[in-house]
Amino acid sequence: MLSTWRKLTPQERRDAKTGYLALSPWMVGFVVFYAFPIIATIYFSFNEWTLAEPPTWIGLDNYVRMFTRDPLFVSSLRATTLFVIISLPTKLVLGLMLALLLNLKIPGMNAFRTIFFIPAVISGVAVSLMWIWFLNPDTGVVNTLLSYFGIRGPLWFWDLHWALPSVAIMSIWKVGGAAIIYLAGLQNIPAHLYEAAEIDGASKWSRFWRITLPLLTPTLFFQLIIELIDAFKIFTEAYVITHGGPLKATYFFLYYFYEEAFRNANMGYASALALFLLVVILSATVFVVRTSKGWVYYEN
Amino acid sequence: MNNVFFKKALTLASLLVLLLCGIGGAAAQDTVTLTWWTTSGRDSPEPAIRNVIAAFEAEHPNIKVDVSIMAEGAYNDLMSTAIAAGEGVPDLAWYWSNNWLPQALDITDRLDNDPDISRDIFHTEYFNNWVVWNDMVIALPYDIGANFVMYNKDVFDDEGVPYPTQDWTPEDYIEIAKALRNEDKRRWGGDRPRGPFRALWRNMGATNPYSDDSTTVEGYINGPESVAAYTWLWDLVNSGATPTPADLEVLGTEGTGPVDLFIAGRLGMATLNPGSMVSTLEAGVNFGVVPEPRVPGNENWVHGWALRAGIWKDSEHPDEAWEFLKFWNGPPGQRILMEQGLGHFPPIPSLLAEYEHADTEWYQGFLTVLDATQTASWRKDHPCWRGAVIRGVRDAWDLIMLGEIERDEVQATLDAMVEPGQAALDECVPRLGG
């Protein structure tokens, strides 16, 4: 590296210094807020640490416990995976459908786009409190509407079988954020392709399958990764509304991590849990990236 | 001449500046600034906290208190982080978590040798259970509270039901709740316990969820007394006289329990706390206070608590911090907080007697509750209960609350809790002790 530096002309060195100087805020931020915490988490995951006392090295004990004798690890992983399976495809499909609607050329469309985007920018806690009222079994909007059709609505967050779907519904409600990204992708599709297809007599359905969807796959790919990571990180709803219940139906992985770290004074084990989640998300992301070659179409 | 004059003037000015700097420096050295982290609420509103500090600073002009008043969640995170980092911990803090206690200064000698204050002025139960740790006094108590049953006298009169008495039983509770239930008025008789709190075991059968030596769950969580407690819970939940968890969660004020339902007259009885008591008083509700019911012959147990202010063990100003601690937790500070906070009850019996509603029936009922034995006397020696074990055995509670099991399945359900409870205990005890 030093030899490369020596080969540079004075002007190139000045340019390089300027470049590194410009990069330095990001690099400092990366080291302080990402690299160091990740390295510290790896270290602490091999320790027992109650916060009040210095960490004690225990080797692989935290991992042995996690994989062999921790029922909460299993149940929290199960709840999180179930949530991902329910919410991820639904959000992807609904987001795309919504984007197609928002791409129509009708009066007042900007207002519609704004309305649908609002849920994506509201604080998670505020949204949670609002949904507590929406899904109130007795006086909530949803059950009141259902009652007009003679349907007795469930207890939602307080029902063993409906708690997790209720959280998923909340998450799906914020689909407007994804729709805006899809919309940007839709508007990047060259209009001449549709014109050519129309001249050739292609139906709307055919145009969607043969032009829109293939050209939208880069956006879909991006959304899939973002939503996948987001879904695995589900926490606020469990923290604010369900506290992991009932009967651990919404005992999500990050909620378990939080309880271990900040309520059970078990920072070492919490670090191991955090690392495990990192590996799961990373593996899922790598899997999606690897398979993307087969289904993501780049026009260039 | 001018030069000489200017030289002299310059020298004099320099000396004057140095002298003033010296005086300023000396003054700065004499004034100590303490950092104090706490939270505020209706019981300790920010103006009252600042008034206590102002009164203290007036008495101690050489000590300034730099208070940071935070939201509770942020407070816990900041304290945990500061303690973990080993720096930035304030001189004085509210030691909320038991896990923080090793960071608090042992003030036993200071307390026992200071003529201005004595441990005798404090309520014995609150003092022993909340600020004595490993035989050391590590903090001083303030702002005490407890759970008790409040009953709406108008609802009782409306239904012609006699008021509960101090020695009422769990069966009485269910029967009264049923008698108060009025579907036409959308009224429930009484609320249901909102978590597997210690008082449930203690008052139902003087048992614990696991052995006193923290080694065994079998025979405790699923023992006959525990089964009796949970069967009572099943009976209550299935009596139709109590709101569902959904009703309680949604219709009650966030985080404060079913006080809204109680104030609205839709709940005849509710297990509440001093803050709710004051809200009810403000709403003009005619109410009474009794302890939670207990099995005949049992000692009466109460879930009580005190906040505790302590000095950081590495504080650079422990003497000055002690002066503030005495003031804040002692009669001068606690009187201000009691008079200016809503529902701030000091841990000092002589001050409790000065409360503005001291001669009312409900307040006397409240004082009786404060004198009961606290479940904290067990819990403080068992740090694993609240963090780990309760989570392991919570499923039994949820199953009953959800109506997922039959009455004769209570025993089997509790039997199933032995394994996760024991696993939680085995994991936690070597780490946190107890």
Give a description of the structure:
- The complex is a heterodimer of chains A (300) and B (434).
- Chain A is an all-alpha fold.
- Chain A folds into two domains: 2-44, no CATH class; 70-295, Orthogonal Bundle (MetI-like fold), CATH 1.10.3720.
- Helices cover 74% and strands 1% of the residues of chain A.
- Chain A has helices spanning 2-7, 10-44, 61-68, 71-102, 109-121, 124-134, 141-148, 163-173, 176-187, 191-199, 204-232, 236-242, 253-263, 267-295, and strands spanning 47-48, 56-57.
- A two-stranded antiparallel ribbon of chain A has the order 1-2.
- In chain A, β1 (47-48) and β2 form a beta hairpin.
- Chain A is flat.
- In chain A, 30% of the residues are buried.
- Chain B is globular.
- Chain B starts with a helix and ends with a helix.
- Chain B is of the alpha/beta class.
- Chain B contains 19 helices and 13 strands.
- Chain B folds into three domains: 1-27; 31-145 and 306-360, Periplasmic binding protein-like II (D-Maltodextrin-Binding Protein, domain 2, 3-Layer(aba) Sandwich), CATH 3.40.190; 146-304 and 374-432, 3-Layer(aba) Sandwich (D-Maltodextrin-Binding Protein, domain 2).
- In chain B, α2 runs antiparallel to α14 and α8 packs across α9.
- The model of chain B is unreliable at 17-28 (pLDDT under 50).
- The A-B interface holds A 48, 50-53, 65, 69-72, 129, 132-133, 136-140, 155-160, 245-248, 259, 262-267 and B 76-77, 80, 83-84, 97, 99-103, 244-247, 249-251, 254, 387-388, 391-392, 394-395, 398-399, 401-402, 404, 420, 423, 427-428, 431-432.
